Amino acid sequence: MKYKNPKYRKKRNTFPLEVSCGNCKTPMVIYAKGSKGNLIKLQVHRIIASAVDLENNEGHLICTNCKEELAWKGSFDGNETYWIIRGKVNSKRLSGY
Ligand SMILES: [Zn+2]
C-alpha cells in the first residue's frame, strides 16, 4: 500500500482486512475491522493504509487501476466514513500484517 493513514487510531480486538476492487482485484485498503459480519463501511480512522491518498481524496473511493467506484464518502457517528457500494469490493483477512 502506497499511503499510510495518519488518521489511523489503533484499537484492540480488530483484525486486518485487505479490501480490494471487485472488478480488477487491485488491493485498495488495509482495514482494521472490529467485528465479524459483512463489511459495509470503511471508517477512515480504522484504515491502516491505502492505495489512494485519503488526505487529498475529495470524492468517493475509486479504484486506482480500473476507476470503478467502490465506496461513497459520508459519515458515521460523526466520523469520516466510506460506505461500500454493495458487491463492489472483495475482502480477505490478513495474517501477520
Ligand atoms: Zn479496479
Quick summary:
With 97 residues, the chain is mainly β. 0% of the residues lie in helices and 45% in strands. The chain is globular.
Could you walk me through the main structural features you see in this protein, from its secondary elements to its overall organization?
- With 97 residues, the chain is mainly β.
- The chain has a single domain (3-93), classed as Metal Binding Protein, Guanine Nucleotide Exchange Factor, Chain A (Beta Complex).
- Helix content is 0%, strand content 45%.
- It has a 5-stranded antiparallel sheet, with no helix packed on it.
- A hairpin with a 6-residue loop joins β6 (61-62) and β7 (69-76).
- The protein is globular.
- The model has no long low-confidence stretch (mean pLDDT 95).
SSE layout and pairing:
Layout: E1 3-4, E2 15-21, E3 27-33, E4 41-43, E5 47-50, E6 61-62, E7 69-76, E8 79-84, E9 89-93
Antiparallel strand pairs: 1-5, 2-3, 2-9, 3-5, 4-8, 6-7, 7-8
Bound molecules: zinc ion.
Residues 21, 23-24, 26, 63, 65-66, 68 line the site of zinc ion.
CATH architecture: Beta Complex
- CATH top-level class: Mainly Beta
Any idea what the radius of gyration is?
12 Å
Q: Beta-strand level of the residues, as a percent range?
A: over 45%
Chemical compounds bound to the protein: zinc ion
DSSP helix fraction? under 10%
Could you give a short account of the major beta sheet?
Answer: 5 strands, antiparallel
Helix-strand topology string: EEEEEEEEE
Give the averaged pLDDT, no decimals: 95
Strand order of the largest sheet: 1-5-3-2-9
Number of domains: 1
Number of strands: 9
The termini sit apart by 12 Å
Structural class: mainly beta
CATH topology value = Metal Binding Protein, Guanine Nucleotide Exchange Factor, Chain A
- Give the CA-based shape: globular
**Count of discrete alpha- or pi-helical segments spanning 4 or more residues:** 0
Residue windows where pLDDT falls under 50 for at least 5 positions? none
